[in-house]
Each structure stands twice: as C-alpha cells, then as structure tokens.
C-alpha cells in the first residue's frame, strides 16, 4: 500500500509540473512520464486486489472442519418385513434434506448428517445379522429422531439382533430427560426390568415394547 502512496505522489507532482511548463519538448516529456506513472499505479492496484482475493480464498479453504459426532445408541425394533432403528436427534425434522446422506448395502449402512447445530453426525452398522434389500431400505427424518428402516430380504425372519457379532438385540431407549414424555418413567422402569430380568422376562418385555411401537407407527405406511 505504501508503494501506491508514493506512486500517487509522483503522479501528482508530474501533473503539477506539466501545468507549469511552457516549452513543448518539456511538456511532451512530462506527458510521457505521467502516462508511465499512471500505468505503474494501475498495475500496483491490480496486484493488490489479486493478493487480497488469494488471501480470502486461502482463508476459506483452510477453515477448520466441523467436529464430527458419531451416534452409537439407538432403539431397536423389527417387523416381518423391516428392522427399524431409531436415532435421537432433537430438531432434526427441520434440517435440510440434502444435508442428510445415506449409503446402504446388503450387509451395512452409513448415515451422515452435515452441519446440524454446528456439528456433523454419523451413525453406521457393518456386518448385519442377515441380508437386506438396499433398494427398499430407507432413511427418514422424523420428529426429534432419524428412522432407519432396513428391508429384510427374507421376510418373516426374526433377527433378534442387529449385527452378527452381537450377543443380544440392542434395545437402547432415547434419552427421555432431554425430551420429556409422560411415559418416561414407565419406559425407564421397563428397561430396568429388561436389563435385570431372566430370559422369560426379557421375551415378555420385548414383545410388549414391539407391539406398542407397532401401534405408534401405524401412520408410517410401511410394514
């Protein structure tokens, strides 16, 4: 910037001398110098603009990426045709659909949510208990949760667990304290009974939870 100040001062003085000069040869000489001074000033201004644009681009490209949060807890349910997974994300129903991406294969899936409340979110599973039909499986944002519906290739087959290597089905309930619900205490009690009960108790509670969830999902249109 100081170079431009000097060039402007030179140009101003040359123009003043040109205005005072009387001899034609001196006037021509000064006019030539004025043209050269103008050219140098214009080049300096353009170079400064290019440097500013380059700095702005580098700053944008080099900005820190958003933090990534991986979600590992979910509620599990299944019907004859689908395995259904519920991932809690408060307010996700208002997030732009083009920022929710999914990749589903025969034995795995991955869901990535970009720029949600300043974070990127990701949840996935690989090595599913049984094969799924990727073309008929869906990922759908609902109120305060993301629903993953995995279409079973073998309808009527009971999975009982999401992954081949799991010891038992994962039945993690959403955090009721973050999203208060009149049935929160009942759900927490059922979860405690399930965790501490014997095999017969677990089968009974799982059946009750499954039937309750089926009634709530009557409006989904997919069974």
Automatic annotation (TrEMBL):
Residues 147-223 form the SGS domain. Residues 69-163 form the CS domain. GO terms for cellular component: nucleus. Pfam families: CS (PF04969). This is Calcyclin-binding protein.
């Amino acid at each position: 910037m100081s170079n431009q100040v000097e060039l402007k001062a030179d140009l101003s003085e040359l123009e003043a001398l040109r205005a005072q000069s009387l001899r034609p040869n001196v006037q021509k000489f000064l006019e030539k110098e004025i043209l050269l001074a103008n050219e140098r000033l214009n080049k300096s201004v353009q170079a400064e603009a290019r440097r500013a644009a380059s700095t702005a681009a580098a700053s944008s490209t080099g900005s820190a990426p958003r933090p990534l949060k991986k979600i590992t807890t979910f509620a599990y349910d299944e019907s004859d045709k689908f395995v259904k997974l519920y991932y809690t994300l408060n307010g996700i129903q208002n997030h732009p659909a083009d920022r929710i991406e999914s990749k589903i294969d025969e034995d795995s899936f991955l869901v990535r949510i970009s720029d949600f409340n300043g974070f990127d979110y990701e949840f996935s599973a690989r090595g599913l208990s049984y094969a799924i039909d990727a073309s008929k499986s869906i990922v759908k944002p609902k109120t305060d949760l993301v629903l993953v519906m995995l279409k079973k290739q073998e309808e009527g087959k009971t999975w009982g667990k999401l992954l081949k290597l799991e010891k038992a089905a994962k039945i993690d309930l959403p955090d009721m304290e973050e999203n208060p619900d009149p049935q929160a205490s009942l759900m927490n009690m059922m979860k405690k009974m399930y965790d501490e009960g014997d095999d017969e108790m677990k089968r009974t509670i799982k059946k009750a939870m499954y039937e309750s969830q089926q009634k709530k999902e009557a409006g989904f249109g997919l069974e």
